[in-house]
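G.,

No rush on this.
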Amino acid sequence: MKATLTVLGSGTSMGVPTIGCNCAVCRSPDPHDRRTRPSIMVEYDGRLVLIDTTPDFREQAIREGIQHVDAVLYTHTHADHILGIDDLRPLSFHRSGNIPLFARPEAAEFLRRMFRYIFEADYKFGGIARVELKSIEGPLDLFGARFEPVAVIHGDTEIYGFRFGSAAYLTDFSAIPELSCERLKNLDILFLDALRHKPHPTHSTVENSLRLVKQLQPRRAFFTHICHDLPHETTNRALPPHVRLSYDGMKLEFEI
């Protein structure tokens, strides 16, 4: 089945331009250097699945003309991946039934506590997102497509990336366990965290992600969660032809 992956956001937790920064990338006129917080959407057979709802989700959804959301998968509970949950409201009002949200059990519990006003709602005037939180206990069959959680290490925490068909999306990791690497073979598209060149305790670097590309051998690889250390055009010129920085609004076709 044909599917389209759209990069909603390709930036790091503070976005690019970063508030208060006057570096060359933050002042760049190149639209590829404007990076909102990291998220993608996957469309197939009339369905739309989000991975994460960032603080920029409202603007991302308007930019991409999103009219409906059928499900949301959460990688983890850091602010740059969850704070757009409230902007699911207008999309949830015009559908039958709640939008299902999926997260690791401990992440689901965190979301339930963080957004008690949604999940323990007693607001009699309405106006809250109509969503239903579910724990990920294994691979998910969503509307005829299989979404498989892939464990990665983010600093000292295990979180999820996801494989779906011939594509995989791994954001916010510093290491990928060997067992997870086994699940990332024979890919057409692989998205990897590549924050910058300088080492970081919780994120992959360009050099580390290039080593992973060489090891996993996807047909195409794209880097995401990019900070303002990496100018788009200059960085791409230094990458192998099948590896590129992603950018907000990028669309890719693949088999799901």
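When you get to it, here's the other one too:
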Amino acid sequence: MVQAGRRLLPLVVVLAVPFLSQGSSTKSQTLVDAGLVGLAVVAGAAEWLVTRWRIEAGVLRIDTGLLRRRTTKLPLSRVQSIDLVRPGTARVLGLAEVRVRSGGSREGDVRLAYLAAERAEHLRDGLLDLVRGSHPASARAESLLARASTPRLLASTPLRAAILWPILGAVALLVWGRHLSLGGGGVALATVILLAVGTGAARILSSQYGFEVARTQDGLLIRGGAVGTFTETLALHRIQALRVVEPLLWRPFGWAKLVADVAGGQHRRDEDRAASGRIRTLVPVAPRAEVLRVAESLVGPAAREGGTAPPARARLKAPISYPLLRAGLRDGYAVSVVGRVRRLTTIIPLAKVQSVRWVQGPVQRRLDLATVHLDAAGSHTTGAALRDRSAEEARELLQRLPGLCATARRATPSGPAPVP
């Protein structure tokens, strides 16, 4: 029923459009529509019937497909995380899905869907034990790091730039539509904008309701959700960088959020894009001191050390952002603080740095300044920038950083981190 439901909703919406526009339908058209709905149900049942999975010789094997058989083999040694997901429809029926993610392409990941919720939890625990290679009782011990406050979440969502500015634009259309001679078109456009923004806000609230993050033997345990729930395990070695984000409209309240750039992030088939990209939310919204406390539990004192300011002459190049510009190195981490409208603190482990770049623009050249970029694996947005340092300091960093990064990689432990 759940597999069919994933197809039925968009199909019903498509079929309802001509019916609503015409006000009625012929008998033959009704039969065709019923046949299409029946095919969707049959397809869902067939997908469930032909799917099998088992473990053999340390490999998770999944066989599926009716007309075209497909076999996926995922070595347990390559497993990056094992997540428990309960979409809304599955939750109503007491079912859950186990998602096993690898470090390779999205085609190598598997979905074990759907099982009874209790059985899915036992299966996830058993797979985690096999991945660990042991059955330690302490492996499931949790140390709670942060839990989202529902009132703060409700108050902060309308203050997001992606939510507030479209709402203000829609209100302006409604108020000034007659003066601009837009007529009904302005009202229709404003309605569409408000519906889209309302849908986005509801999705944010639904995904971050009850959000909490805890430390376990396997890394970070992230769970939450209102309509559909999820439980995700994020191995610490997959974190490429931490970012403390302080939007302009949150700063008067002292709020911030903590996100992580994750290795191997990409959109998965049949999965929400926000939950499958490179960015993982660790704390959706909390007082800045609490966010820094969580970051400090992961990277140590480097989370609270913003580094040093650039030379005073950098104010000529960046007069607005200069008061917040900070950068520095400490305890195997590089820290950079940028932004005036939205303050962004990036903490990147030197062990994750893949390349170091020295960049000097024409204005920087006149002011004898330069920027050092530290790039981690993945997209060009992953990394940190030590902005507008003196050219001499930037050259020194360019010479020192490769050795510091190599030393940090040798000192990085390969095993799971203990629960504090």
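The chain is about 35% helix and 30% strand. Confidence is low (pLDDT under 50) at residues 266-276, 415-420.

Enjoy the weekend,
O.
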